[in-house]
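Incident review: delayed structure delivery

Summary: a single-chain prediction request sat in the queue longer than the usual turnaround. Root cause was a stuck worker, restarted by the on-call engineer. No data loss occurred. The affected request and its eventual output are reproduced below so the record is complete for anyone auditing the incident later.

Affected input:
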Amino acid sequence: MTTPTGTEVKPTTSLAPASKPKPTAVARPEPGASRKLSAPEELEVLIRARYPIIYVVSWEEERVERCLRQIAESRNKKLFVWTLSTGVVKSGSEPPRGKSNATTDPLAALDSVVDQIEPAIYLFKDFHHFTDDQRCNMSVLRRLRDVALHLRDTYKSIVIVSPLLQIAPELTKDVTVVDFGLPVTNDFSQLLDRIVDDVKDNPQVKISLDTESRERLLNAARGLTLKEAENVFAKTLVLDGKIDADDIGIVFSEKQQIIKKSGLLEYYETQEGFGHVGGMKNLKQWFQKRSIAFTDRAANFGLPPPRGVLLLGVQGCGKSLCAKAAAALWKQPLLRFDIGRLFSSLIGSSEENIRRAIQTAESVAPAILWIDEIDKAFAGATGSAGNDGGTSSRVFGTLLTWMSEKTSPVFVIATANDISHLPPELLRKGRLDDIFFVDLPTEEERIDMFRIHLKRRGRNPEKFDTVDLARLSDGFSGAEIEEVVIAALFDAFSQRSDLDTEILKRSVSETVPLSKTMPEELNRLRTWAVGRARLASASSTKSTEEARRKIEL
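Output delivered after worker restart:
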């Protein structure tokens, strides 16, 4: 049996219709080519190849119906649509008013498919309720299998579209699944062109998009459906009467709704930039070089999207702040992954939760997934069989596999305080691009930190002796310096005086830093980092023991 280009597989029995759909010239890959078909192309190939029942997983019914309408027109077929409320109606036509449609019943709808003689495509919406493995669906499942056998000898196809994949075991050999992915950048570009064309003659609307701003806006919309993107573009016009690069924040607000509905991830609206981060010159440069890595220009240059980074170091030295600053620099949504929410007492629920969290992150990509204190979340995961039946190991394994195999532009920022609690498989290249060790700030970095925190609280840093304060605060972390400033403000306020250097010095002297409370832990971290991790700062401080060592002459 041959299948010439542009034709369908011909039925082999007498049940075939007399009229044959006209052939169309469809672009096909060259022999030996391995180009992956897009979802619309795959749909057309399956319909032409006589696959009887196709299950499309998608939230975008309109987009799937529009695609099928184009296929039906090119194949000289009719397109019918079924819903539980309207029954079977021709696509694009209104259901009869005031009349009940017997085909609202799924069995009657399947019977109408069999009765149809002419070539046609039937789109069943929300039919997944009847393809699930439940006793009440047994008659529908049996009838659907009978119809599948009938359709193999006709020019008719059934396409089921649903946001959920629910297939009873009886249907696994009769149904072919197609994942109709979210729109790509070109789809959003066409949508934006249409919106701009609709409002270009309105004097109250301003369109200010150069090539770079347009690309940033379209990349921000990735992860939305076309309907969600159309809504958010319209929202920008209503709010400020314009469309420009500043509207990326409004696009992110739409993604925030998706995150809230998941219940597993937390959306962070970041106001912090790297200007609020003292020191860490090497880490800042690393993020700066990759700030355009998610653009089409970078992809055309041959650059893959960055995968992730692990920030290891002393508590309170700004690891979490760097995650927020990176999201602001890259202009991407920041999703905090609270692994504690994943674990459930029900068997299998924890594993399902990690998969749902990953799917949610990918659905709003490009995005930054921030896993805070991953060492505490997965401490002892490799030996969890005796504690939780291996649940932690399975959850951690799912996360590791996804980090290795992911193709969606989700950048992972993991922070940790104790490397000894992390299994070695997390640290290998391919899952993370780099490991940075965030040490205690140097004297120069402490000067920057005092200036940053004074300025954030409405004080002019030039009026303070930040050099002397930095000298006195040797061994302080960034968080401890911030607390010094806050404590000094409380002292000044209680004394009904303004903040000055002397009050800050007194606050420094009253604070005992963690480097003095736990010097052994700090030195252990530093010892591990030598040769194993890149330094976040251009220079590093001496170990606590070295700073206190005395030489006897």
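Verification: The chain has four domains: 39-179, 185-262, 268-272+281-430, 443-516.
Action items: add queue-age alerting; document worker restart procedure.
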